[in-house]
């Protein structure tokens, strides 16, 4: 059923009891043309574009938990495209373009809100790095501008720009087109649209092995619901990518770290934009429910535990209170962690692999939510055509062998 004014009105008269299920929950078939491992935003978007743009509908998305329960449902939803290198600018700006009408395309309100993302500079080095990003972006036709401390405060009135604090604000880079979206809605919207096109989404089904034939090509997977055959497999498992790729005998250049976030009690609308401080590992926005959504830097040790060290969030809250003194008495309600997959150059891997039929989309680390539509779009192309889309061609696995790195350590913000 399509969402429309008429369908909302009709269902209002039946106390909203008439809505059908938003996606089907079938048992797995014996085989599919393509299996996607991982029903996060990137996996679901890949399945959707395989069906919508390449006519490949015999697709299963296999998820060990519930869809959107990984980093997709745990992130702080910041969307921007102000990366340094041309390769990344093209990829992240492609995603930013797709965000613009994603709600209409999916017929599902993903609540994309381009309220502006402002990245603060606190040291001379920060100022130099930030200005370099602003100039690089503007050369590439990507929106970004430099603000003085006073202009930064005018854009975000709660910001403390006094000079005598630990982290004085020396300026800021502002991408006005950046913003936020509702993370769950992105997963649900892609799931609903993919399912309507025939994609099977199979939850509570963990992949335990990748099967290969005598020629080394993939032939399918083993799962907790039994074996499923496929000639093509796309692994989109974020923090668990190394584990899944290890099942095919591939060692990935990835480290998995916990990354934490927390939300406050709901407040009246008070915070008009998104503010990030990469130097002090703190970022903040206000959700439509009213809670302050606050994120920290990565924990300093590798782990698969979806919690994290208390000292990390304490450090972030100290910094937030200094930058926004009006929040000192706000109470925090919940905190959680996600497991982020970090590459040595802080850029993703979206590529074919040395194993025939096996494709991988990973390494988004602390910053993949913003890329969800673009990542799914180009990864579907890569799987369907057996060759990369021009926008993901540089994001190979081989770059870690041949040295063609795409170093985004500064733009990736919290992935230090
Ligand atoms: P996921 O949503 O994690 O999906 C992967 C799925 O694979 C999971 O559902 C998992 O259960 C499944 N899986 C794993 N192993 C198996 C298996 N063996 N069998 C079957 N299924 C399996 N990015 C931004 O752009 N902006 C932000 O503001 C931002 N903030 C963040 C804040 C936090 C606290 C965290 C943790 C991350 C943040 N990120 C942010 C990063 C972003 O969340 C991720 O890069 C992005 O969501 C990754 O999406 P995904 O679909 O690849 O992964
Ligand atoms: O990549 O913009 C980002 C981000 C913000 C918080 C975590 N990641």
From TrEMBL:
It is found in: Cytoplasm. Transmembrane segments: none annotated. One of its GO terms (molecular function) is nucleotide binding. Residues 34-78 form the Rhodanese domain. One of its GO terms (biological process) is tetrahydrofolate metabolic process. Belongs to the SoxB family. It is an enzyme of class 1 (oxidoreductase). Pfam families: DAO. It catalyses: sarcosine + O2 + H2O = formaldehyde + glycine + H2O2; sarcosine + (6S)-5,6,7,8-tetrahydrofolate + O2 = (6R)-5,10-methylene-5,6,7,8-tetrahydrofolate + glycine + H2O2. Keywords: Cytoplasm, FAD, Flavoprotein, FMN, Nucleotide-binding, Oxidoreductase. Its cofactor is FMN; FAD. Its EC number is 1.5.3.24. One of its GO terms (cellular component) is cytoplasm. Signal peptide: none annotated. This is Sarcosine oxidase subunit beta.
């Amino acid at each position: 059923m399509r969402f429309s004014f008429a369908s909302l009105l009709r269902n209002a008269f039946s106390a909203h009891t008439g809505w059908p299920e938003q996606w089907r929950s079938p048992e797995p078939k014996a085989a599919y043309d393509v299996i996607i491992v991982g029903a996060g935003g990137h996996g679901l978007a890949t399945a959707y574009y395989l069906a919508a743009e390449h006519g490949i509908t015999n697709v299963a998305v296999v998820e060990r938990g519930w869809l959107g329960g990984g980093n997709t449902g745990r992130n702080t939803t910041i969307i921007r495209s102000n990366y340094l290198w041309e390769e990344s600018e093209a990829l992240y700006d492609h995603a930013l373009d797709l965000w613009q009408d994603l709600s209409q395309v999916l017929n599902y309100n993903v609540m994309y809100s381009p309220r502006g993302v402002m990245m603060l500079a606190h040291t001379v080095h920060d100022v130099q790095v930030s200005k370099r990003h602003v100039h690089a972006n503007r050369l590439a036709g990507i929106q970004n501008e430099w603000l003085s401390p006073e202009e930064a405060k005018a854009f975000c009135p709660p910001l403390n720009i006094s000079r005598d604090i630990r982290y004085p604000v020396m300026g800021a880079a502002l991408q006005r087109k950046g913003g936020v979206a509702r993370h769950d809605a992105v997963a649900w919207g892609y799931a609903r649209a993919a399912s309507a096109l025939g994609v099977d989404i199979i939850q509570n089904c963990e992949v335990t092995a990748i099967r290969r034939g005598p020629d080394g090509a993939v032939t399918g997977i083993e799962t907790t619901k039994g074996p499923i055959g496929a000639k093509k497999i796309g692994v989109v498992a974020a923090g668990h990518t190394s584990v899944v790729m290890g099942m095919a005998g591939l060692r990935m250049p990835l480290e998995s770290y916990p990354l934490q976030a927390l939300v406050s009690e709901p407040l009246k609308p008070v915070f008009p934009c998104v503010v990030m401080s990469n130097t002090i590992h703190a970022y903040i926005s206000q959700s439509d429910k009213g809670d302050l959504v606050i994120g920290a830097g990565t924990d300093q040790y590798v782990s698969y535990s979806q919690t994290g060290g208390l000292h990390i969030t304490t450090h972030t809250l100290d910094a937030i209170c200094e930058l926004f003194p009006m929040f000192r008495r706000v109470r925090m309600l919940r905190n959680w962690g996600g497991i982020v997959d970090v590459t040595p150059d802080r850029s993703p891997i979206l590529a074919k692999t040395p194993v025939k039929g096996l494709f991988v989309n990973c390494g988004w680390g602390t910053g993949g939510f913003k890329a969800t539509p673009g990542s799914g779009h180009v990864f579907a192309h890569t799987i369907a055509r057996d060759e990369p889309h021009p926008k993901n061609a540089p994001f190979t696995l081989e770059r870690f062998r041949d040295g063609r790195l795409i170093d985004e350590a500064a733009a990736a913000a919290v992935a230090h």
